[in-house]
Specification:
The structure holds two protein chains of two kinds. Chain A is mainly α. Chain A has one domain (3-264). Helix content of chain A is 81%, strand content 0%. Chain A is built from 14 helices and no strands. In chain A, helix 6 packs antiparallel against helix 13, helix 7 runs antiparallel to helix 9 (118-151) and helix 9 runs antiparallel to helix 10. In chain A, 42% of the residues are buried. Chain B is an alpha/beta fold. A six-stranded mixed β-sheet of chain B has the order 6-7-8-3-9-10, sandwiched between helices. In chain B, strands 2-1-4-5 form a four-stranded antiparallel β-sheet. In chain B, helix 4 (113-121) packs antiparallel against helix 5. The longest helix of chain B has 16 residues, at 164-179. Classes of the chains: A mainly alpha, B alpha/beta. Chain A binds chain B through residues 2, 4, 8, 12, 105-107, 109-110, 112-117, 264, 266-268, and chain B through 15, 46, 49, 52-56, 73-74, 77-78, 80, 82, 84, 86-90, 92, 101-102, 104-106.
């Protein structure tokens, strides 16, 4: 890895990372601060939930715990989808810019005529993504922990740590996909829309599979299936090894493909 | 005989079905200034990108310092400075930050040569690159290519966008570096620039090398346009000289296309007449191509 390139890319993204960190942590804080009022009206919500179709509740992982425990509540309102979409958006913006974006703008030519090899560029940029995503994730959790401590809500730090590892592996799968398309295409917009399309289809396949038993078998094709239910991971404090293995493998395979494609790519 | 710094052997590049360059073979000796000439789309930039391993050849080889341009590209790039035809530099960086970034890839200690180049080319490195004019971008690209005094410098249209005063300074810098023994490989459209700086030139057209000539030979081949204004008329037959083409003629005006090797014959014919004014211009290099290689 090249320290100077890492330093430059970290600097390039400092404003974006700051904004994403502020945004996700503010959203966390807002959700935690309204949790006590949600919790207190859980009995009313239980009645409302009883009227919901079972498949619908299952599809969206809605249970009474979704409103009585902080983990269940944050999972359904934030970590199941909204937060995931925010962090994957950051990831795909980053991957598309890293290779295709630089080729598109012509700055890759400037970089690759310096004494640095292509794999070094790929690894340095990937390391920078890891640092950036960890900063944003940490900001999100700080946004949970501080208001929770103030409001006296008990939170399992270890549960959050386990969940953060699971989420990181989920983001890694999309990072691998994003890097692959970024290595493949010369146009940044294609490099962002191709993995975004996969994200959308993956979510749709997972949702339809949960809603309709006939389609359940197709869920294995969706990356969202392997992300699972954040509340369960936080409460059980156990990493779903098999599912995360699939996600890690997908990320790794596509990351290796991206290295192969980028190494042999004509830059013009 | 000096060692070859660049050796190209049957280098071919296709972009899918489209030809980039085909069967290019030539070499550039140590300390030589080699001009690479050709019209737009001829394959100059493709050749340069193949040398720098930005593109991979379809077949053939390119060696720099005796090293394979693909397998040993990292070693090669430590000793090569490069200016792109259209320098694409990170817009959010200042000129200084960009030069520091480029500097950071080399372990060599910073020399005061970078500052000398900045001063001589009149470059303001405090501003952000996105606010640079085309000329200033070119200057920044030149400083980044030359500041390490590499053994080989590859320049794609180096004087493009530079004002005439800066061009003069740039030619001085190139001549100094040439005296120091730097090998310079430059592509250009500009015959005057090539005549001022290059020892030898290679002319490429439609992806193929048409010829590799010394600059004297190219000068000999090149065509001039002569505009002659007579006081009291002239006889057209006096100017119907072999290889001379009459482009325009009037009662007291004659415009000729003259190969430099027959300039003396034209001048001899002119002595018969009273000439009010004579204007001799070097045509655009592409016109030379069209005349000699079409």
């Amino acid at each position: 890895m090249n320290f100077n390139l890492i330093k430059k890319v970290l600097k390039d993204y400092r404003i974006s990372v700051l904004l994403f960190s502020l945004g996700t942590s503010a959203y966390s804080a807002m959700m935690v601060s309204i949790f006590p009022s949600i919790q207190s009206s859980a009995s009313d919500l239980a009645g409302y939930m009883d009227k919901m179709p079972a498949a619908f509740k299952e599809a969206f992982d809605i249970s009474l715990g979704s409103f009585t425990t902080i983990e269940g509540y944050l999972s359904i309102e934030y970590f199941s989808l909204v937060w995931v979409l925010i962090l994957i958006s950051f990831t795909l913006a980053f991957t598309s810019q890293s290779l295709a974006g630089e080729v598109d703008k012509g700055t890759m030519e400037t970089l690759l005529t310096q004494p640095i090899n292509r794999l070094n560029v790929l690894f340095s940029k990937s390391f920078t993504w890891l640092v950036n995503i960890l900063i944003i994730m940490a900001a999100t959790f700080i946004g949970v922990f501080i208001p929770a401590a103030i409001a006296g809500i008990e939170v399992s730090y270890f549960g959050f740590l386990i969940f953060s590892l699971a989420a990181l592996i989920f983001f890694w799968a999309f990072f691998g996909l994003g890097m692959f398309f970024s290595a493949l295409f010369y146009d940044r917009s294609k490099a962002i829309f191709a993995p975004l399309g996969i994200l959308f289809i993956a979510y749709l396949v997972d949702l339809v599979g949960k809603l309709y038993p006939d389609f359940e078998k197709f869920r294995v094709l969706s990356l969202f299936k392997y992300y699972g239910n954040p509340a369960e991971v936080m409460q059980d404090k156990v990493l779903p090894g098999m599912d995360l293995g699939v996600l890690f493998g997908v990320g790794l395979v596509f990351f290796i493909f991206s290295a192969i494609v980028f190494k042999r790519k004509d830059i013009y | 005989m000096k060692d070859s710094v660049v050796e190209i052997e049957k280098l071919t590049k296709f972009y899918g079905k489209n030809l980039g360059v085909r069967d290019l073979s030539f070499s550039v000796s140590e300390g030589e200034v080699f001009g690479f000439l050709g019209p737009n789309g001829a394959g100059k930039t493709t050749t340069i990108r193949l040398l720098l391993s930005l593109l991979y050849p379809t077949s053939g080889t390119a060696k720099i310092f005796g090293l394979d341009s693909v397998k040993d590209s990292l070693k090669i790039r430590k000793e090569v400075g490069y200016l792109a035809g259209d320098p694409n530099i990170y817009p959010t960086l200042t000129g200084k930050a960009f030069l520091d970034f480029i500097d950071s890839f080399r372990l060599s200690k910073k020399s005061d040569y970078r500052q000398q180049l900045i001063d001589r080319l009149g470059l303001d490195i405090k501003r952000k690159v996105k606010h640079y004019s085309r000329g200033n971008l070119q200057k920044l690209g030149l400083v980044s290519a030359l500041m390490h005094r590499p053994k080989l410098v590859i320049l794609d249209e180096p004087s493009s966008g530079l004002d005439p005063l800066v061009q003069v300074e740039f030619y001085k810098i190139l001549n100094e570096l040439k005296k120091e023994g730097m090998t310079i490989f430059m592509s250009s459209h500009n015959l005057t620039e090539v005549e001022k700086t290059c020892d030898r030139v290679g002319i490429i057209r439609q992806g193929k090398m048409v010829t590799v000539e010394s600059i004297e030979r190219l000068r000999h081949l090149s065509l001039r346009v002569a505009e002659i204004f007579f006081d009291n008329g002239y006889q057209k037959e006096d100017f119907e000289i072999d290889s001379v083409k009459i482009l325009e003629s009037g009662e007291n005006y004659l415009k000729l296309q003259v190969p430099s090797r027959v300039i003396n014959e034209v001048l001899a014919s002119l002595t018969k007449y009273k000439v009010h004014d004579l204007n001799l211009t070097t045509p655009d290099l592409e016109e030379v191509f069209l005349q000699y290689y079409n």
